Amino acid sequence: MRQNSLKQRLTFWRNPWPRTPFVQRPKSRWTLRRALRAGLASVGVLTLGMLGLGVAGAWSTGSFTRVWNLRSELRPIEVQDRRGGPLGVIDHCREGQTTNAVPCRESLSVPLTGVSQAFLLAYVAKEDVRFFSHSGVDLGRLPRALLSGAGGSTLTMQLLKNNVLAGHFDYDTQRRGLGLVMTRKATEFVLAPLVTLRYGRPEVLAMSVNSLPWIGIGQRKGVYDAAQAVFGVDPADLNLAQSAFLVGLLPAPGRYLVSENTPPETATARFRWMRSQQLLTLRILRSHGLISGNDYLAAASVPLQPRLWRAEYAGSSGDLRIVSAARNPDYRNDPEPVWAMQELVRRELRAAGLNPSKVSRVVLTIDARAQAELSRRVSGEGATGPRPPGIAEGAAVVDVRGGGIVALASSTGGNQSSDAGRQWAAYAQRPVASTVKPLLYATAFGTGDTDLNQFSTFNDQATRYGSQAIGNNSGTFLGRAVTVREANARSLNTVAVQVGTGREAALRRVLAGVNYQEDSANRSSPALGTFRAVPLAVAAAYGSFANGGTLCQLHLLAEVYGTNDKPLPLRRRDCQPLWDPVVAYETFDMLTGAVNDSAGHVQFLRPSFFQRLNGQNMPLGAKSGTTDDINDMWCAGVTPQYAMAVWIGDPDGRQSVPVDLYREQAACREIGLLRGLPHDIRSVEVPPGITQVGGVAVPIPGLKPRNPVPPG
């Protein structure tokens, strides 16, 4: 009998209760005490499971390292112009991330002392009222956070979600599911106390307000950009009404945006929603005793007019109501100059072998004054007016001496963007049209086996390129012999094709050497500009004529400093020879003929009387170009110190440039900017082997210059 009893006790593993063979099964299966113990055990198991899930999530995403270096990671790259003036900042962001709607955004960090107390009160009260009493995780709100995936997060957890965990799990990805939400929340639960311990609450608050995701408002983030974009004020000057409005936008910042085509009832309903969120924030502040009833009424009775909106109110004080709201037709929100250059800066840093996340400050070759003037012109405030919808413009100014980019601007109907596809000055590969002709003639001047120069003559008459009949833009022929100088000044296609015949292979090598791309679908002569290039490449090619025949690699970076503010080395190729110096000088002189000669097609670029008085009469050469379908208008110019290229057209090649812009030669009128730039070099050095005949530069008799092999 005892043996059977003992045998039964030793098989306890088959029975989940009791846990030991030496404890008898209780007569009553459940008691209050046992239920409480089981509940506490379940909480313990869930807590341990959540901690394990959070540690695994943090480990798999590399978040532990990023959290420990969060302050330096959130510190943006400070950008200065060539004189040390501020140009803006660039976010440290994860390179190559495609899941984030806006992977890299401009922001400007400000200390807590630079943010108004009204905004800090509104932000903390609405988003995390117990922020200063917990260690990063508010256990009282945790169940709500776990079940909803939002709304229960502390400021610290939001900071982690928006910066460290963005692009992982369910946030800023295309993936959804309770498991992903639980994993992200568990990871935040593990990391939040570490962030609080590492930086302290004031620093966490400062990082939080500087990284708030107002993604919908011009793709910006942070309190500085929001205050500037919405109200046009510094964050230190935000009043209570404005602060409550901004904080109220946080749940859905995209609702702030409105277009001219938004129906009036939709726009009004959207603004009423924003007004309701503002009042909700004010009520939360009042309920916590952070503002008085009078403060509430004073803020609620302010008829706010955000810069993007034009709202009509009725009533007063606590009865203030929205009657109607629509987009403000006078709204403008031009970004900082570096906003449109940030991807180019990152690309150049990576090409130099530098990690952008390890960089704290960069000095660009940009001249702030030239940049401001070029941006003004490209945005439509210049002499030729705004561009119609669908017509874009890209323009670049470079220093011929070393290839530094002095100014860079792009537009699409007046809107600037950091999107690489819209930075037309750097990415718009379009047919270069007649701007190729100076490169063609320079190629011919430097073959070394002919006496071809500016005085060489060709007949302007009906010409063929294979089976293709070649005509001039004017639709007529002069029917006489013209010099190469006059042919370039008049932009005669017939002469260009005659000169290009027999020299096509050499021209192709030159065009490949200056980073022009062949259009395989266009079978016409490359002497007519069938190759494609971006404005930056065209400017660099023209700069070689004023730089003794050498082609310099274009660059934006002048100096780079690491997170310890120590200079970092920049690897950069040296300038490479493209033309014989005699050829380069002769071509530069030929380009000035298009401006100064009676046959010149851009005579309006001659210096005015006042420019002569101001010392702005330095030599300037230019060449225009237009494709047959007028989908593209070009102009390139060069002085002894600067080269510039301007492209206006349809990036997709479907729409023609309006006739008025074509007739006004809008692209070449932009080249006039070169005369306003400060010039340290006012003349091109005359190389040995050049002589002047009737004021025209040509090689000395018998000299047959030969160009070097183009860069590979």
Structural class from helices and strands?
A: alpha+beta
- Main sheet: which strands, in order across? 7-6-19-18-17
The number of distinct helices, counting runs of at least 4 residues, comes to 25
Distance between the termini: 99 Å
Mean of the pLDDT scores?
Answer: 85
Q: Based on DSSP secondary structure assignment, what is the total number of beta strands?
A: 21
Query: What is the helix content?
Result: 25-40%
Shape: elongated
Low-confidence stretches: 9-15, 95-103, 413-418
| Proportion of residues in β-strands | 5-15%
Main beta sheet strand tally, sense and closure:
5 strands, antiparallel
Radius of gyration: 34 Å
Can you walk through the features of this model?
- By secondary structure, the protein is an alpha+beta fold.
- 37% of the residues lie in helices and 14% in strands.
- The strands form eight sheets. Strands 7-6-19-18-17 form a five-stranded antiparallel β-sheet, sandwiched between helices.
- The radius of gyration is 34 Å and the shape is elongated.
- The chain starts with a helix and ends in a 13-residue tail after the last strand.
- Mean pLDDT is 85; it is low at 9-15, 95-103 and 413-418.
